[in-house]
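Bug #2210: token dump truncated for YjiS-like domain-containing protein?
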Amino acid sequence: MSIFTHESMTNHHAPHVHVSGLLNQVSDTLHVWWERYERRRELSQWSDRDLHDIGVSRSDVAFETEKPFWRA
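Reproduced locally. Full output below:
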């Protein structure tokens, strides 16, 4: 038998989230993740000269592009 009850585990301080608000948050998060994926993919295709022009090394690119899409 658990010592925790549903009532004791409920966060009474959390704001009430409406379904439409939740869907907007999910949509916004998915959009950010997609943009991050696209920018990293694009960066991986830049030439050494382009990277040099902006002061970024191949190792910087490797570090950035190896991150999962959910990590900033």
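Output looks complete on our side. The chain has four helices and no strands. Marking as cannot-reproduce; reopen if the truncation happens again.
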